[in-house]
């Protein structure tokens, strides 16, 4: 499995680094069955995160035709107070410190990323994953209508408003779409994908190495629905 983890201006570093390290370690533990790289819609470049202007380098352009996993992170920035409205020009120009998270996520829609993600989701050889606000990037691009997904608990209402079946779970498996909730859920999402795509022994070895135990039950749309309490 080859994994492409997307960087965009204002991304959340932990949404990227947590799954990157898990998948990289899975490749080491499996003798090279997993590879992982950081990519952007624009190609190789330094990409500035929303956390203290920490930068990571994308080494290649996102390739939606390449089989494997494509992972979309969320953004890091201001949540804002209830009723607080961003500046009228907040959506324009380059990244700047302490921008609103919805602005950072929405700005991805002005790039080539939505078209690339649509191509990836139309590719039967690609699994698309998302951590935290990454689900909202996909949803705002109109790519998740009718699908089951999760995101950070503060974004579940917005996710639902886009026509997604929003699920309050840490990891949601909807076949070729696998999403994680809050920021640290990137660890659990990546470990689950290792288990699903490579095998439980590899996932367990990485889990032990990281001294991290996955939390909760991965949600699938199958089996009887729970009775109303």
How would you portray this structure in words?
About 4% of the residues have low confidence. The strands form three sheets. The chain has an eight-stranded mixed sheet, with helices on both faces. A two-stranded antiparallel sheet has the order 3-4. The N and C termini lie far apart (42 Å). Helix 1 runs parallel beside helix 6. Helix content is 31%, strand content 20%. It has seven helices and twelve strands. The chain has 229 residues and is of the alpha/beta class. Helix 5 links the parallel strand 8 and strand 9.
Largest pleated sheet: 8 strands, mixed
Could you spell the SSE succession in H and E letters?
Answer: EHEEEEEHHEHEHEEEHHE
The Rg value, from CA coordinates, equals: 17 Å
Helix content: 25-40%
User: How many strands?
Assistant: 12
Q: Regions with pLDDT < 50 over 5+ consecutive residues?
A: 82-86, 88-92
Question: What gross morphology would you assign?
Answer: globular
Enumerate the strands of the largest sheet in spatial order, edge to edge or round the barrel. Answer: 5-2-1-6-7-11-10-12
| Structural class category | alpha/beta
**Beta-strand residue percentage:** 15-25%
Question: What is the residue-mean pLDDT, rounded to a whole number?
Answer: 92
Alpha-carbon distance between the termini?
42 Å
Give me the number of helical elements. 7
């Amino acid at each position: 499995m080859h994994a492409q983890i997307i960087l965009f201006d204002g991304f959340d570093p932990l949404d990227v680094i947590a799954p990157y390290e898990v998948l990289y370690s899975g490749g080491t533990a499996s003798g090279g069955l997993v590879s992982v790289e950081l990519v952007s819609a624009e190609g190789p470049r330094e990409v500035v995160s929303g956390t203290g202007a920490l930068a990571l380098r994308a080494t290649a352009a996102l390739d939606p035709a390449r089989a494997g996993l494509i992972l979309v992170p969320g953004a890091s920035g201001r949540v804002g107070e209830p009723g607080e409205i961003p500046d009228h020009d907040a959506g324009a120009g380059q990244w700047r410190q302490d921008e609103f998270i919805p602005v950072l996520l929405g700005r991805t829609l002005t790039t080539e990323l939505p078209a690339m993600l649509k191509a990836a989701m139309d590719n039967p050889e690609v699994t698309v994953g998302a951590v935290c606000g990454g689900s909202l990037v996909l949803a705002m691009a109109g790519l998740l209508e009718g699908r089951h997904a999760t995101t950070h608990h503060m974004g579940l209402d917005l996710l639902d408003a886009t026509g997604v079946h929003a699920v309050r779970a840490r990891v949601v498996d909807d076949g070729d779409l696998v999403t994680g909730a809050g920021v640290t859920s990137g660890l659990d999402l990546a470990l689950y994908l290792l288990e699903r795509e490579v095998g439980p022994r590899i996932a367990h070895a990485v889990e032990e190495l990281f001294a991290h135990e996955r939390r909760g039950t991965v949600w699938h749309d199958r089996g009887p629905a729970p009775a109303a309490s």
